[in-house]
Structure formats: structure tokens, C-alpha cells
Design brief:
Number of domains: 1
Number of strands: 0
Structural class: mainly alpha
Distance between the termini: 27 Å
Largest sheet: none
Length: about 220
């Protein structure tokens, strides 16, 4: 009926498109955060992966003796445990950011803003709070990762792998972590844009609801 058509029309509005972009950005942040966490170890985990990873990192690992292999395993596990809380926190934030716009889309499809226009002001406030909170969250995420990479565990691990000719274990931010930071910045800008659109839509709804009273 006409009610269903009006609900579907919301998905073609600028606010809905911004919210769908926010869903996409949050999903990518979640994926990049999980990649940052990685597996429990490079030396111990790579053989189980097989294929290109097995051959890229040396197959049977003939460069490692028993003592070096045990030390590599210990360093891998310690490095993994250092990064795990940061990656989990980032995944939790990404998950919350994924749920938030989905809830707002559902609320708008159910036409709550039309029946309760003040909801749009609440939505605007939430967007501003999240956008502002994203800045210290990104700082904490990157600062904590850099602290891990500057730790003695990472430095020793890097030197051990390099001494055996293995590459890819450098103590620096990798692509997924940099991407997560950039996606977080893009998400903050999208939230500010959505906040502005919510205020505009509030004015539009308020004016439309006042029209019958003027007749």
C-alpha cells in the first residue's frame, strides 16, 4: 500500500545513503581490525596455512634450529598477546558502529522521525558525539599499536626472522591497520554529514507538519 511505498522511499533519501555508507565503512573497519589481530604466530601458524604461505616463508624452515624455533614461537605468542586487546577493542568499536546506522535505518523506515520529529535532533546529537569520540579512539588505536611495534618483543622477533632470511615481520604498521585508521577518519566525516542532514530533515518535517494548521 501507500505506507509501504513511503517506507521504501526513505531508502532513496540522502540520509539513508549516508547511513548505508556508514554501514559499509564500519564493516570494513571490522574486517581490517580482525586482520590486524592475525593468527597466534608467524613461525608456528604459517605451515598450517599451506599453499603460497608455506613456500613463501621457507617450507620446512631449515633456517631455524630447535632453540631458534622455540624462541620464534615464544616471541610470536607474546607479540600476538600484545596486539590482541587492541584488535579486540577495535573490533568491538567496529561492531557497534555497524549496528548503529542499521538501527537508524530501521527507525526511519518505520517512520518514527515523522511521528516524533525530535528523534532527528537526538540522532544529530548522537552523530556528533560519535564523530568527536572517533578522534581520541583513533589516536588510542594507532598509539597503542605503535607502542607494541616499538616494544622489545617486536624488535627481537623482527631481528630473529631477518637473521634467517624471512621477510614480512617488520615492526611497523601494516596496510590493514593504516586502512582502519583512514576508514575511521572517513566514518567521522560521514557522521558529521549525517548530523547536518538530520537537522535539515527535522526542519523539513516540522514545516510539513505545520502546513495543515495554516489552512
Amino acid at each position: 500500500g501507500s505506507l509501504e511505498r513511503r517506507r521504501c522511499l526513505y531508502l532513496h533519501t540522502g540520509r539513508a545513503w549516508c547511513q548505508m555508507v556508514e554501514v559499509l565503512l564500519a564493516a570494513l573497519i571490522l574486517v581490517c581490525s580482525s586482520v590486524s589481530c592475525g593468527s597466534a604466530g608467524g613461525y608456528t601458524g604459517l605451515p598450517a596455512l599451506g599453499g603460497i604461505y608455506y613456500y613463501q616463508y621457507g617450507g620446512a624452515y631449515s633456517g631455524f634450529s630447535g632453540a631458534d624455533g622455540e624462541r620464534a614461537q615464544q616471541l610470536d605468542q607474546r607479540f600476538y598477546l600484545l596486539k590482541l586487546p587492541i584488535a579486540r577493542a577495535a573490533m568491538v568499536v567496529g561492531g557497534c558502529l555497524l549496528v548503529f546506522p542499521c538501527v537508524l535505518i530501521l527507525v526511519s523506515v518505520l517512520q518514527v522521525p515523522w511521528h516524533f520529529p525530535a528523534w532527528l535532533l537526538i540522532e544529530c546529537t548522537l552523530y556528533i558525539v560519535i564523530a568527536v569520540g572517533t578522534v581520541p579512539a583513533l589516536y588510542y588505536f594507532l598509539h597503542s599499536l605503535l607502542s607494541v611495534y616499538n616494544s622489545s618483543v617486536c624488535k627481537e622477533r623482527e631481528q630473529l626472522y631477518q637473521s634467517k632470511g624471512y621477510q614480512g615481520f617488520w615492526c611497523s604498521l601494516h596496510g590493514a591497520e593504516i586502512a582502519a585508521g583512514l576508514l575511521g577518519c572517513m566514518a567521522a566525516m560521514a557522521y558529521l554529514l549525517s548530523a547536518g542532514i538530520a537537522v535539515r530533515d527535522y526542519r523539513t518535517v516540522h514545516e510539513q507538519k505545520q502546513k495543515p494548521l495554516q489552512l
